[in-house]
Amino acid sequence: MSAKSYLHIVAAVLTAQDGRILASTRPKGRSMSNRWEFPGGKVESGEGRWTALVRELQEELDLTPTRGRPLIRLKHDYPDGPSVDLDVWRVWDWQGVPRAREGQVFDWFEGDALTELNFLAANTPIVAAARLPDRYLITPDWGDASLIPDGVEAAARGGVGLIQLRGAWLKTGAAESWVSEAVSRARALGTKVVVNGDVDLARAWGADGVHLSARAASVLEQRPMPRPALVGVSCHSAEELRQAEALGADFATLGHVRTTPSHPHQPPLGEATFFALAEDARIPVYAIGGMGTDDIPCLQSRSIQGVAAIRGLWPERDKV
Ligand SMILES: Nc1nc2c([nH]c(=O)n2[C@H]2C[C@H](O)[C@@H](COP(=O)(O)OP(=O)(O)OP(=O)(O)O)O2)c(=O)[nH]1
C-alpha cells in the first residue's frame, strides 16, 4: 500500500511586540471559507519552507517576514477535504504593514481570545502552541514557600512565560496566600501560572490552569477545566501522549530526556527517542529532564515548543 500523501502547508503565527497574534478568515469561495486560520498556504514544488512562507505572506498580507522559527508541525486529515502537513512558524519581525489582499478579514488577538474564534478543525493544537511560551518553569519543592512569590516574579521578569507551582508546600496552610501573591505578580508581567495536580486548588486560587500526571489524566474523560484555562500533562511514552491528546490537553511535557539528579535511577528516554515521540505528537511538547535554555534552539529547529525545567530555569537564589 502506498503511503498517504500530505499537502505541505506553511503558516505563520505573526506575533507583535505586545504579544498579540494575527489571525485571519479564509476568504469567500475557498474551501472552509470564513473559518479562522493563520496566514499561509501550500509549499510549491521545489520551494523551501521559509521561501514559501515569505511568498504566502506577501501574497495574502503584503508583508515580508524577516525573523521566525518553526513552532509546531502536525498532520491532519479533513474527512471531506485534503490531508495536510501543517508546518507552522512563529514570526516576530516583518517589513510592511498588513493589508488584506485576498478579501479575508484579519485582526490581532490576545492569546486567550484566540480560543474563542471558530478556527479550522486542525488548528486547536496550533492555537495552543501560539499561546504558549518556549520556557516552562516548575517550582522547586522547597520547605520555604515564602520564597515562591519572589522566585516566580524573578523568573517572569527573566522571560519565563509559564510557571507550574508544584511541591508539598501547596498543601500547607500558608499556601493560598503564597499562590495568590505569585499568580498576581506573574500575571502583571504576562506570565501564566498553573497548579500541579489539583484542579480544585487551581480553580479556587484563580490560577491559569492545571498540570496533571499521566496517571491522573488517564482517569479523566474530558478536560478538567475549559479553555482558556491551560491543561498540561506529564508524559513519558507514546501511549501517554495519545492519552493527553485524546483528553484535549493543551500541551505535554515529555521526558526525562537526560539523566537528572531528581531521577537518578530511571533510565532517560534519550534524545533520539525523545525527538521521535515529540515530532509525532499532535499537541505542543516541552522537553523535560536535564534540559535548559541552551537546548531551545535545537528543539525549535525541529518544531518543538521548548523546555520545561526546575534547575534549568529557576532564578539563581541571589536573584530572588
Ligand atoms: N493557511 C492555513 N491553512 C490551514 C491552516 N489550518 C489548516 O488546516 N489549513 C489547511 C486549509 C487548506 O486545506 C490548506 C491550506 O491551503 P491553501 O490555503 O493554499 O488552500 P487554498 O487557499 O488553495 O484553498 P483550497 O485549495 O483548500 O480551496 O491547509 C492554517 O492555520 N493556515
Automatic annotation (TrEMBL):
Superkingdom of this protein's organism? Bacteria
Q: State its Enzyme Commission number(s).
A: 3.6.1.55
List cofactor names only.
Mg(2+)
What reaction gets catalysed by this protein?
Answer: 8-oxo-GTP + H2O = 8-oxo-GMP + diphosphate + H(+); 8-oxo-dGTP + H2O = 8-oxo-dGMP + diphosphate + H(+)
Annotated ranges, domain Nudix hydrolase: 6-134
| SUPFAM superfamilies recorded | Nudix, Thiamin phosphate synthase
The UniProt keywords, alphabetically, are: DNA damage, DNA repair, DNA replication, Hydrolase, Magnesium, Metal-binding, Mutator protein
Q: Name one GO molecular function term.
A: 8-oxo-7,8-dihydrodeoxyguanosine triphosphate pyrophosphatase activity
One Pfam assignment: TMP-TENI
Q: Which residues form a coiled coil?
A: none
Do you know which PANTHER family this protein is assigned to?
A: 8-OXO-DGTP DIPHOSPHATASE, NUDIX HYDROLASE FAMILY PROTEIN
Family assignment from sequence similarity: Belongs to the Nudix hydrolase family.
Name of the protein? 8-oxo-dGTP diphosphatase
User: What organism does the UniProt record list as the source?
Assistant: Natronospira proteinivora
**What broad taxonomic lineage does this protein's source fall under?**
Bacteria, Pseudomonadati, Pseudomonadota, Gammaproteobacteria, Natronospirales
